[in-house]
Structures are given as C-alpha cells and as structure tokens.
Amino acid sequence: MSLRADVHVELGAFALDVELAVAAGELVAVLGPNGAGKSTLLGALAGLVPLRRGRVELAGRALEDTAAAVDVPPEQRPIGVVFQDYLLFPHLSALDNVAFGLTCRGWSRAAARAQAQTWLARVGLAELAPARPGQLSGGQQQRVALARALAVEPALLLLDEPLAALDVRTRAETRRALRARLAEFAGVKLLVTHDPLEAIALAERLVVIEHGRVVQSGAPAEVTAHPRSTWVADLVGVNLFRGEAAGDRIALDGGAELLVPGAGTGAVFAVIHPRAVALHRSQPEGTPRNVWPARVDTLDHDGPRVRVRTIGPLTIVAEVTPAAVAALALDRGGDVWVSVKATEISAYPA
Amino acid sequence: MSPERTRHHRRERVPAAVLAAAGVGALLFLLPLLGLLWRAPWPRVWEELAAPEVLAALRLSVVCSLSATVLSVLLGLPLAWVQARLLFRGRALLRGLTLLPIVLPPVVGGVALLAAFGRRGLVGQWLDTAFGVRLPFTTPGAVLAETFVAMPFFVLTAEGAFAGMDRRLEDAARTLGAGPWRVFWRVTLPLVRPSLLAGAVLCWARALGEFGATITFAGNFPGRTQTVPLAVYLLLESRPEAGVALSLVLVAVSLLVLVALRNRWVGAR
User: Fold this and answer.
1) Which residues in chain B are closer than 8 Å to A104, comparing Cβ atoms?
2) DSSP H or E stretch at residue B56
3) Considering the entire predicted model, what is its pTM?
4) Contact call for B176 and A48, based on CB within 8 A
5) What 8-state DSSP symbol labels residue A291?
6) Residue-range domain boundaries for chain A
C-alpha cells in the first residue's frame, strides 16, 4: 500500500509539476513557501483539482491516469483530508461531522454515530460530541477534523497545514498529540506545510517544492545540511551560493569567486554558515584567502547575536556579537572587509 | 464591526441643514402611515374586513401569493444555482433577464405576459388549441403575474447565497464520500437555508402587493382574480373606509415582514 503520483496541473499561468512516491506508514512533508503549489498538489491527489497530465496510483490502483482516461471522482477515492482551516460543517455537531463520511459510505445513522463517538473519544473529545464547530477551540476543531478524516479509514491521509490556524501556545501541544496519532495510522501520510519546524518535527522525509517544482527531497537532517535553494538556506539561516567548480575554485553565478580546497568539478552548491564569516575594519592579513571589501546593508539584532548583511562581490550574512558591532563601529552603509576561511565552506554537487 | 463597537458614541458635529433634510425625509415615510391610521374606521374595522367581497379578496390573495411563492422557489432555486455556479456564455444576459421585472413597470409586465400567454399570444394560442388552457383573466393567470413580478427577489437572494458560501465545504464533503446530490442536500442547502427563507419571505411580500401586472394580465374579477390590492383600488371608489381598512391589513403584513427580516437588511450588519 503506497502512493505513486506524477502530477501536472495548470491553473492559469501557474504550473505544478511534481513526482512523489510515499510508502505505507511513511509520513512525508511537502515543504514550500506560500504559493509554491502545496495545496494544489493535495487538491490534485484528492481529485478536487483535475490533472492536466499524469497519474495517481494508490495501493496499486490507478485513481487518475490521463493516458488511460481513468479519473475516479473525489467521493470514491479512499483518501481522508484535514483541510487548512479544518472546514468542519458549521451546521452539524462535532459528532455528526465525524459521522458524515460514514453515512456517505452506506452506514446506518445509528451505527455511524456510534462509530463517530468512538473516534471522538480516541482524540479525547468524547464529551464535546454535541458541540457545534463554532463552540470549539482551534485545537479541538483540528482534532475533530482529524477524527472526521480518519473515521472513513482511508488508505491515504492528506494534511494541509494542520497547525497553521493555531496560536503559538497551543501549537506545540497539538503538534505532540498529532504526532502520536499519526504514528498509529498505518496508511500513507502526506503533510503540506510552509513551516520547517512543523515539517521536521512530524515528517520522516521532506519534499521541498518551489514554483510548482520539487527542488529537493530527503531526510530532514540531509535537507538542512545541504540546502539546494535560497528559500531552504534562508530557513536554515545559512548563506547559499551556486557556481561552477574547477579544482580549488568555484566561479559563482554572480561573477565572484570562492577558494575552496577540493571543490570538485561542475555545478556545485557552496554553503557558508554566518558564524564562519568574519568582518574587519581594514584589509586582514594572514591565512584566509577569501577576502573582499563590502558595504553593510542591514543589521538584525537577535538576542546575543547580530546578523550583518553585507553587499560586495557577493551578498553574504555574517553573525557577530554586539561587542564586535561596537568595536568595528558597524553601521548601515559603512565600509567593511569580509573574510571566510576556505575550510569553512562546504561544497556539494548541484 | 460588532454592534457593541457601533454603539460607542462619537461626538459628531452635524450641520443643522442635514438634520432638517433628514427629518423631512423621515416624515415622507411617516406621514402616509399616520394618515392611514387617522382615516381608519376604527370602530367598524372588523365589520368592514368581514364583508363577503373583502373576505374573498383576502382569501384569494393568500392563495395566489403563496402559490406564487412556491412556484418561485421551485423554479427560482435551480435558476439561482445555475446563475451562481455555472460559467456559460450569456450568463450576464440571463442575470439581467431575471432581474428585469424588478425595474420594469408592472403594467408593462402585464402587457408582455398578455403578448406571451394571451389567447392570441406567442405561447398562449398554442396552449389554447393544444390543451384548452387559457391563462388570462383566471386565478392561475393571477398567480403567473405575481410569480413574474416576485420571483426575481427570491432568485437574487438565493444566487447571492450560493455565490457567497464557502465552496471548500463542498470539497470537504466530497472527500468524505458525498456525491453531488448528497453534497447539495446535506451541505449546500443547510448552509444557504437562512438566505433562502429570507428570499422566499421577500418574494411572498412582493407577490402579496402585486397590482399592475395582475390587473393587466388577469383582470379584476371578484373571487377569481381580484386580490387585496385590486380590491383596495376598487373599494376606494365605492366604500373608501373599507379600502382604508384593507390597506391597513397590507401595512400590518409588510411591517411584520420587515420585523422578521430586520436582522438581515435593516439591523446592524
């Protein structure tokens, strides 16, 4: 029981072009900025957004295949969806919300309600069965939505930003509970989020999409260690460059050059942690060979650290102490020398 | 903004001329009402209303306006859904067409109905020869005239409700296994029900007061097509006091409708 999807969707000028394979029991997080096409991907898998081209196969059965003219309507797909703002039916009680899918699948009203009560108990909301969604807190609504999606025992569970609608305080607690409940679900799990913390906390594998395309996928540790897009690099808080390596040199796309021993050959990414970037009042002497003059663009104070964005032959962020900012008399628009030790740069094939 | 917020007083400096004009405007609505109350034959109101021809008009009005409302809901609901949900060429034209009776002088509506359903009308002559059905100057004709004028109010309200509801709730229902019909009956309809009810009440009130199209298309036959507004018009010639008493009934009903719908159109929204 696994999901294999090759999804091509066109919505006006936006095109989504994503290939995915998820094993049973695995939880994959699709991570990407707003507007990357994450919700469209879920809609396509659920059958709510038609494929322009491609195939969706779940547990060996084709749900949609444009080449073979197969298109199972959403109501016949064994898929449960937890929508971004839960989309509970406001005119039905929590119990009837959970029972809704069961009655659609031919259960009698009494049996469906009894089963729904069991599901509500499972998410810890047995006593709130008669409540309308409007009377429930955000966290409770999320649990009802999860129970509603799981009650029909789907083969694939889709979660669209399940924690985004919650405030920061309830989010951590709800995330723990969600993690525990998802572990019990044996089917395929696909989570969509723009929040890297949520993705890393819940998922075993990340698929990063930007502008409708997969830019990177892998275990969370692998993705954060070797970002392959500026968006991921910014999330992780590192400097990311792309260029052409030859011997000990990397010619960056912007025209500048980095000295990196053993950089390899061909297209590479180079990652520099802001802590490895040193700032100087005047041109430094000594070992660092990556040295260039730059101008201070912005200063971001973040607790005991200051992130200094500099613009020179390349734009790079340095992380220094407030004391260093004072000693160097750093200010916006001021001149500064930037240096990076060659050994602090990690390069890997693009 | 919540009602609590709007109730907060702001120190507004209002020019006296604005207040005066607003006062005159309010009087324009108040004075006719007061005049009606002043002229009403209070001691004999019940007696006047119990007169056989008045009772017949009241009964006929109830039957016709309710029939027109039922007809408007049955035909207007699918029409509103199509106008709100389907994208097709000529949708703007269809929308304009269904709204036309709201702005059309009702007499013109009556003339147009005659041209279509009259004995020598576009469809009427065929209805007559093929089925022996004649609509003009019959009770069904009065119902048709009232439906023509009142249905747009229902369609307009229902269309707004269909277009304004969160359609993602329908998506959610589909992912739970609900086919199109079940989605409509179990999700869409319950969500728009308050608007449909308001639209139906508005439609009924308009049908109850219909005059121009009815008298043109259905005539003014006591017991058959003489509804309350037509009876009021006739009584003003013969027994003005009965006309005023009957007018009061219409005013009372209209006020009742307004109060019932207050939260939708008049109250803080």
Assistant:
1) 173, 176-179, 182
2) helix B52-85
3) 0.82
4) no
5) E
6) 3-234, 238-349
Give dist(CA B253, CA A132) in Å, integer.
35
| Rounded-to-integer distance, Cα A250 and Cα A242, Å | 9
The partner residue sitting opposite A101, judged by closest CB among B166, B171, B177, is B177
> Phi, psi (5° rounding) for residue B234?
-75, -40
| Residue in B with minimal Cα distance to A82 | B172
Tokens of A237: 């808080």
* pLDDT value for A124: 93
Sheet containing A188-193: which strands, arranged edge to edge? A70-71, A61-65, A53-58, A3-11, A14-22, A213-218, A205-210, A27-31, A188-193, A156-160, A79-82
Least Cα separation, residue B174 to chain A (angstroms): 5
Is residue A259 classed as helix, strand or coil in its secondary structure? strand
| Residues B170/A92, Cβ–Cβ less than 8 Å | no
Of A148, A151, A94, nearest to A125 (Cα)? Answer: A94
Rounded CA-CA distance A80/B225 in Å is 58
Q: CB within 8 A of B82, min separation 6: which ones?
A: B94
User: Which residue in the block uniquely carries the two structure tokens 């957004």?
Assistant: A49
Decide if B191 and A152 are in contact by the 8 Å CB cutoff: no
Phi first, then psi, for residue B112 (nearest 5°) are -65, -40
Phi and psi angles of residue A306, each rounded to the nearest 5 degrees, phi first: -125, 130
Per-residue pLDDT of A10-27, as tens digits, reads: 998 899 999 999 999 999
* Gap between the Cα atoms of B175 and B125, Å rounded: 51
Least confident segment among A246-255, B130-139, B144-153? A246-255
DSSP three-state, residue A105: coil
Nearest to A335, CA basis, from A278, A275, A281, A291 = A281
CB contacts, 8 Å: A148 with chain B: 176
Q: Which residues contact A185 (CB under 8 A, 6 or more apart)?
A: A150, A157
User: A278: Cβ–Cβ under 8 A, 6 or more apart, which residues?
Assistant: A284, A288, A318, A338, A339, A340
Residue spans of the domains in chain B: they are 44-264
**pLDDT tens figures, B175-225:** 999 999 999 999 999 999 999 999 999 999 999 999 999 999 999 999 999
Task: Extract the tokens encoding B153.
Answer: 């109010």
Element of type H or E holding A116: helix A109-122
Please count the other Cβ atoms lying within 10 Å of the Cβ belonging to residue B149: 27
Q: A240 - beta bridge partners?
A: A271
Closest-CA residue of B relative to A49 is: B171
CB contact A39 to B (< 8 Å): no
Domain boundaries A238-349, CATH class: mainly beta
CB-CB neighbors (< 8 A) of B169 in chain A = 87, 89-90
d(CA A80, CA A100): 12
Which of A289, A302, A300 minimizes the C-alpha distance to A340?
Answer: A289
Q: Which amino acid is at A27?
A: L
Architecture of domain B44-264: Orthogonal Bundle (1.10)
Query: Could you name the CATH architecture of A3-234?
Result: 3-Layer(aba) Sandwich (3.40)
